[in-house]
Amino acid sequence: MFAPTSAIFTLLLFAATLPNGLRLVELPPEGDSVEIVAGYTSGGLTGFASTAAAKSLLVDAYAAGANIDFINELDRTAFRIRVPKWALAMITDRLPALFTEVPTGDVEAAPSSPDFRAKVEDEIRNALLGPAGPAIGYATDDAFILTSALPPDSLREALAAIPKRASTKAQEWVSRLPAERTLRFKSDLAAGAVIFGSPTPGVYYKQWYLVLLLDRLIHRIVPLPLNTTLPLTLHPYYYRLELAVPAGQFPEPLEETLLQEMQRLQFTTANAHDLVVARDEALAYLDSKPVREWFASYDMLSRREEGMQWIQSMTADDMRVAARDLLIMNRVIASWAPKPRQTSVAAEPLSPIGPVGEAQARQRAASRTDRPGRPQSAPTAGRDEGALPETPLTRFPSHTHAAVSNPLPERLSSGVSLATSAINAVFISGGTMTRFDREVTPDDLKSFQQYRADRILVLSPASSLERARQLWSAFKGNPNGETGVPKGKVSTGDLSALFVLKTILDLKLIESGWWRESSLRIDGSEGSALQIRAPDEKRTQILDWIKSIANAAPPDPYFAWIREVAIHRFDSIRSDLQALIWERDAQGTIQELETISAKHVQDIARIYF
């Protein structure tokens, strides 16, 4: 049933391998934007995102209003960028440098110690596969670019001119003797777990597709709340099942139950209906966009087609054999118990501390920090003081901005407010913003019936506004529900300027290489404020950047460019701004970004931080 879709995808796809080994693949076009995936078919390349070429690419993509994802998978390290068509040349011009520049090492900050779960995974992987070797490197044979637009000839020529690079070190795989290994760990986690792991080959082999179908069957017939993982990989890895151990229980009984269910799979034939549904789910997974993209990265779409044919021919007996193989292979059972609850005892003096003791306590508190959020010992030498460039970073190609209309929310007969926006979402005043990747259904309304109708703002694209109006006009809320209390301290008239300030800071995070571990958000669920999520030292630096802007407004040419960037990214924040403004003023509207001045942004930095 999936063959026609796959065939269409194959017909629309054009792949070319350049003389240096780099793969350039054209994907089917999608809508008004272009998707580009660029990187290496090798995992663990931590320095890839921190090169100067990568930062330049990300700055341009962000400035054009692109959606940016960093792919850090077992066998792939890459960027996924969805950019407007008018900005395509900005991105493609940066791609050759991305593959020309090779990191000399891990240019990022030293990673923090891995958490308990990461250490457990290392132990399981070592027991099944042996110690993991270093990353293969930045070989041009591993480089790939997927694009949903026809690659220009200039891009092909520039990519072909990149010198061929071989792998720095071949990956080694250790052959392990079949054995059953049991690992017991001690943990401070509130919940325990039982993990079953069994080695699997890569996607070249039929066994991988057998395990994929078995996995879908397990979720249908095994009466346990299992989380399973079968990664897409060319190399041997392992299939993983995890069963949570609730607080107050021991892992051993659940471990025995899990093994009994796995053993039952090899002796019990699945019924025809369960097998058909599991097969459909496995085929749908292989035909999904992310999986097709993964196979295209390796120029292996024909192998995916063959795997789908294998799955269509698999029988219930094949599932019993696959379950048997998981049990007799070099399997591992790992487990840990939940942390026992501990009773704490607090003590306090029976007499007042006294003037002397209070003075000493204040002195100790003052010595720990010189201002909120900034430890006194935090280093300041050599830190970027937040100076902004005098000129724009990149000139934009000629383009026009889509007209944005922000009409006042409509009050429905039910008491619910309705407004046109870029997404489907429901906002509860003083509460949360719930986003939907589809139109809201009558079943979705049930979760909002606990709230007063006048606390609810419904956001909907213009194309589905009438259906939303009909649906929510009949809504029955709780007239005795609590009244929402707005969160945050930024006034409605300052929210647009706060977004422009966030745009400046986002670009500085990208230029600093901190964008993966630090983020800035204006979130309707969190209230009218700038949410800074970053390690303490980086949070301190972000606050210093804000202080620098408060002391000196951005130069006019740079600010005009920043304002243009904010306009490109407006759709990403529109719904949150609408919700936060409506929450305080039902008749309020979003200030047009073109009217925001550098002085206004400077005032925001000075007043609220």
CATH class of the largest domain: Alpha Beta
**Parts with pLDDT < 50 across at least 5 consecutive residues:** 1-12, 106-112, 352-385
Number of E-type strands = 20
> How many domains would you count in the coordinates?
4
CATH architecture of the largest domain: 2-Layer Sandwich
Number of contiguous helices: 20
Q: Report the portion of residues in β strands.
A: 15-25%
Biggest sheet features: 6 strands, mixed
Explain this structure:
- The protein has a 6-stranded mixed β-sheet, with helices on both faces. The protein has a 5-stranded mixed β-sheet with strand order 7-11-8-10-9, with helices on both faces.
- It contains 20 helices and 20 strands.
- It is α+β, with helices and mostly antiparallel strands.
- It has 4 domains: 141 residues, Metalloenzyme, LuxS/M16 peptidase-like (Cytochrome Bc1 Complex, Chain A, domain 1), CATH 3.30.830; 156 residues, Cytochrome Bc1 Complex, Chain A, domain 1 (2-Layer Sandwich); 64 residues, no CATH class; 116 residues, Metalloenzyme, LuxS/M16 peptidase-like (Cytochrome Bc1 Complex, Chain A, domain 1).
- The N terminus is likely disordered.
- A hairpin with a 4-residue loop joins strand 4 and strand 5.
- Helix 9 runs antiparallel to helix 11.
List the helices and strands and how they pair.
Elements: H1 3-12, E1 14-17, E2 23-26, E3 33-40, H2 52-63, E4 67-72, E5 77-84, H3 88-92, H4 95-100, H5 116-129, E6 143-147, H6 153-160, E7 181-185, E8 192-200, H7 206-221, E9 226-229, E10 237-245, H8 251-267, H9 272-286, H10 289-297, H11 301-313, H12 316-328, E11 332-336, H13 354-368, E12 369-371, E13 374-375, E14 410-411, E15 417-420, E16 424-428, E17 433-436, H14 442-445, E18 456-460, H15 465-473, H16 495-512, E19 519-521, E20 531-533, H17 536-551, H18 556-568, H19 570-584, H20 598-607
Parallel strand pairs: 2-6, 7-11, 15-18
Antiparallel strand pairs: 1-2, 3-5, 3-6, 4-5, 8-10, 8-11, 9-10, 12-13, 14-15, 16-17, 16-18, 19-20
Helix pairs in contact: 2-16, 7-9, 7-11, 7-12, 8-12, 9-11, 16-18, 16-20, 17-20
